[in-house]
Design brief:
Layout (H helix, E strand, L loop, with lengths): L7 H12 L2 E5 L24 H4 L2 H6 L1 H17 L4 H11 L3 E6 L5 H5 L4 E3 L2 E7 L6 E3 H4 L15 E4 L8 H13 L2 E5 L11 H7 L3 E6 L12 E4 L2 H18 L8
Helix pairs in contact: 1-10, 5-10, 8-9
Bound molecules: nicotinamide-adenine-dinucleotide (NAD) and zinc ion.
């Protein structure tokens, strides 16, 4: 074990051990290593598609066929993606009782695929399509084929059951996420630029309710200088691997661990 208290990973491990009840808030950054582009940044979707033209409810209602150019890319990229090491380390943290829930802004289903059990999907998911006229829902794989727009039985164009700009957060997900934020001991904020509202309020709610905020991101974000207590800079997979490693070392060296009898 490394000595000294200034290593941010050790500090985060100390917080996780002391406060317990950690909750994770994840964003597009955790799925970048699965080959799903994030939205912001040079490689991001927004470099190719203007969000105001492609990602608002208004744009979908006005020009659904145009918006499906972007949506088709998302459906096929998400459909072909598999969980990366970061999703798996996070599921392992739940398995060992360190993390009790994952609130995700992602719509790719990769936390569940990696084995996370309590996942709150704040922005819905790509696995389902919904008709915004008659509210009928369908599994995406039943209605969507590459190059075509999926249609409802009523004849209208279906929308993925994800939250576009201008749409409300599903009420149950919002309630559950805020409850988790108010009652957690540590909020692990992983791979989000914290610029999408109201998801970006979750860290503040956690902080104001007494939680410590540990941020894992390759870059600083607006949270880093405002609510974050510890910024663990690096890729989600690398930082989570190191956290788990240090946590298991702590377990082995903890005085309460039985030592040979
Ligand atoms: P964002 O694109 O705004 O920001 C991504 C953040 O992840 C950035 O701060 C970046 O520095 C960081 N990052 C990039 N690679 C990383 C890595 N390997 N490890 C750790 N951090 C890394 O994403 P957002 O804040 O989630 O907001 C975008 C919105 O778009 C979300 O609401 C989400 O619903 C949606 N979205 C979802 C997916 C998906 O489901 N995988 C993909 C793109 C966008
Ligand atoms: Zn319909």
């Amino acid at each position: 074990m490394r000595a000294g208290g200034s290593d941010p990973i050790r500090e985060a491990v100390r917080l996780l051990a002391e406060r317990r009840n950690a909750v994770a808030l994840t964003g597009a950054g955790i799925s970048v290593e699965s080959g799903i582009p994030s939205f912001r940044g040079a490689q991001g979707m927004w470099a190719k598609y203007d969000p105001m033209e492609y990602a608002t409810l208004r744009a979908f209602l006005q020009s659904p066929r145009k918006v499906w150019e972007m949506l088709s890319e998302m459906v096929s990229v998400c459909g072909g993606a598999v969980p990366n090491a970061a999703h798996k380390w996070l599921a392992a943290l739940e398995e060992t009782g360190v993390v009790r829930a994952v609130i995700t802004q992602n719509v790719d289903g990769l936390h569940q695929a990696a084995g996370s059990r309590r996942v709150i999907e704040y922005h819905g998911n790509m696995e389902e399509l919904i008709c915004v006229f008659c509210w009928k829902r369908y599994p995406t794989r039943e209605r969507w084929t590459p190059g075509a727009v999926p249609l409802c039985d009523c004849g209208e164009i279906l929308k993925p059951n994800v939250v576009l700009f201008g749409e409300p957060i599903p009420w149950l997900a919002q309630e559950q996420a805020e409850e988790e934020a108010r009652t957690c001991g540590v909020l692990l904020v992983i791979g989000t630029s914290a610029q999408v509202s109201p998801a970006c309020d979750i860290p503040r709610i956690a902080k104001e309710s007494g939680a410590a905020v540990v941020e894992i991101n390759t870059e600083p974000t607006p949270l880093t200088v405002s609510v974050t207590d510890i910024h663990l800079r690096g890729s989600a997979s690398e930082v989570l691997r190191r956290l788990l490693e240090e946590l298991s070392m702590d377990d082995e060296t903890s005085p309460s661990t039985p030592s040979g009898h």
